[in-house]
Every structure is written in structure tokens, then in C-alpha cells.
Fold this sequence. Notes:
By secondary structure, the chain is of the alpha+beta class. The chain is built from 25 helices and 7 strands.
Amino acid sequence: MITPTxxxxxxxxxxxxxELRAEKKTGTLVLSRDKETKKIYFRSGDIIYAASNQDxxxxxxxxxxxxxxxxxxxxxxxxxAGNTGKPVTAMLxxxxxxxxxxxxxxxxxxxxxxxSSVLSWIDGKYVVDNHPLPLGEIVSLQLSxxxxxxxxxxxxxxxxxxxxxxPLKTIIAPAKDGSPYLQGIALEQDQxxxxxxxxxxxxIEEICALSEMGDFTTLKALYVLYALRLVxxxxxxTAEQARAEAAVAAGVxxxxxxxxxxxxxxxEMILHALESLALQDYYQMxxxxxxxxxxxxxxxYFRYAKLYHPDRHMDSEMVELKxxxxxxxxNITEAYNILSKEDTRKxxxxxxxxxxxRYRTADQLPSAxxxxxxxxxxxxxxxxxxxxxxxxxxxAEEAFSWAARLDPSNPEYVFxxxxxxxxxxxxxxxxxxxxxxxxxxxxxKVEYYLEIGNFYAKNGLKAKALALFKDALLRDxxxxxxxxxxxNVGGVGTAK
Length: 496
């Protein structure tokens, strides 16, 4: 049960409305921020009307903006209302400027506009007024509160959604009793998909990875569900929990925790595994049969990739094995890249039948290490681009990160990783660090300046964007794109 008064920040407007709806309240929700005051009227939990002290929200303005009446007709009705004492809306109908149906439709649009405007508020105060409704001052409408909310939430700006979501490692669960909040709401397909994935054990990050809809679409759908109180935020999943679950998913036996899995990786294991590479084909490397399915190949790869991932072995005694761990991880990734694609697997099987275990021999490993790293980096980079295109920015960032690790001299890997981070909630500063590094590595790359400058401009940092564009124009004075970009952010289009 909500308190009679409080801060919007601690509750959010959509959740306030859903709570009043679930409690079947009759009364007025008064929302205030600075000089704005907006009121939402409820009867038995349903929104029946809304009002505002802002000129743009008045019914007359709404009717004019929707072209149901002209400003001249509205002025005539206002004058007539002053002379007769009747409401302006009544005079609009009496004078034939507006049909009763158009009046109702216009009032519904006004309510929808006022509601949409307050859904984006992340600060301010609220008061729940339980006094009888002022029926003489409002138009009682038949409205679907649920659909008004869904429509308003779907139109929210991404910045509002990003600021309102819990941390990415937060576990999301279905509401314990979501039925009072679901009544009258027809969820979109993406919202239904995310609701099914929010099973109480997955984090926001994991839901994004599983949804296959792209991070942007998934997070918007998740915010709608969260705002509608159909899902709740739980605890933040720790790194230990994530590793334990990953180990189980990769085939670790029941009862065996993540720490036990880590303990099994010893120096001797790493050295033995690296020595064995010379004798193993790709199937043996992943410990799978030659008839393994695509799912079995993927499962084996993730198991060994997690086992030998350099980032999982950061303790002091493993530092000297960093190069060997990277060698192991690179070879495991190479095996997976060959076997996971049908065409390359067929070619490899033919080579294997003729006695060729690897595409490169054991004595070539040390001398070919750099070349192989670059090839694997390129493969990871291409995977990142693919994930970026479908808006799976977390998977893209991970792939770009590995590409940059394997080939740190390539500024494109650094730059693309920055672009992926820039599209994640609360990662703007990390993205900015990578952008600066990419510019330092490739100071003449005009495309970087344009992309980064546009990133600044979209986030309201026009001064930064302008400075960056002007800096780039000094390097390339003939770039029309840079000149246009400067004009777009309020500059003069030429270098000073």
C-alpha cells in the first residue's frame, strides 16, 4: 500500500498508478514538480480524467493541436462561455464546432498526453487525495488504464528508461501476484518474451543475452514490465554466483561449485594442455566426438573457454602463465570457429581424413603466434559486428574486448568497443575513455571524430561535440561532413 504523500523518485509514476489501480482507489493523484501540477482522477482504480496547470495540456489546446477545432472557433466558444456561464466544451458543441463524439475523443487524447508527460518524471512530489471527485469540473471517460500506461511507456525517451532501470546484474523475477496489475493490459510480443525470461534467477544482462531481440528492444520491454509492476527487481548477482551457474550450464556435475572448478585449474594442467595441442585435432581439443552436434560443440567450447579464460586466473602465481593461458584460449577459440560452421567443418573433416590434424603444425605455434592472434582477433571482431547489428551490445562489447586484447594495435577494435559501451546503461564514461584511446591511436581518422561527436551531441554535450568537430576540421579542412556537423550543433562550420 502506498503512503498518502511521498517522493516520485522513490516510487516512479507508473508504479504509483499501478498501485492505485490494484487497490481500486477512488480519488485524485496530484503530481507536482517545480511550477507544474498535474492531476489524475481515479474511480475504482480506473483513470477517468486528467488535468494540468500547463497551457499546452488544456483541452482546448489539445483539440486545436489535433485539428478538431480551429483557434478561431475556440476563441468564439470562450467568449460565449463567459457570457453564458456554461463550460467552453458545451459551447463548442452548441455552436456546432464539435460533435459530442469528437469532444470525447479530444478529452481522451488530452488525458493520454498528460499521462504520457508525467510517466517520464523521475523527481517531484505526489499526494493521493481521497476527497470526493470534483465531478462538475471533469469529463468522466471510459478509459483503459493498462493500455494508457503501455502506450505512454512505449513512447518514453531512451534516456529516461536507462536512468530508471536497476543495475544490469540485478535479478528480475515475476511479481509475486501480478494479476491485479495485468488486468486489461495486452502485452506486445517482445514484452511477453521478456516476461517469460524473467524467471527469478536471471539478471537483466542475462535476459538481454537470451532474448535475441537486441539490447535496446529488450530493455525497453523490461522497463515497461517493471513500470507496470509485472516484474520486480531482486538481489544483485555476485560474480561467484554467475561463475557457479556458468559452470553448471557448461556441464559441471551437480554439487560441484564454481570454486571447485577453479581449483582444478593448476599450473600443471595448463602446461599439460598446451603441450597436448601438438598431438590433438580440433575435436580432441574440445573433447568431443566427430559426430558432435552444434549444441554439443558450443557446450564444450564454453566449458573449456571458461576453464582457461585468462581473466579467471588473476592471482599472483598464475601471472607467469598469462601468455600460455592466452595461447590455450586462442586455440580453443580456433577449434570452435572451425567446427561451429558447417562449411569450415566439412573442409576440416576432409583434411582430417587425409591425416592433417591442424591447419598449422605444432612447430609453427611459437612463430605463428602473432599471426594466429590477429586472425582470431579478426574473427572475434566480426562476431562483435554481428552482435552489434542485432543490438546485443553486451555480447558485442565482449567480442570487441577480446579482439582488442589479442591485437591491441588495432584502433578499430577499441573504437567499436566504445560504440558498444555507449549504448549500454550507465557506461558512458567507459565508452568515452575508449573513444579517447581510439583517437590517440588514429588521430587522423575523421570517421571517429564524427561518430564520437555525434555521440556527445545526442547526450546533450554540445560543447564537447563542437570542440571535437573543430579539432578534426583542423586536421581535414576540406571535410564537408565535419562542416555540416559543426553547423548541426550550433557552430559556424569553419575552423577558427
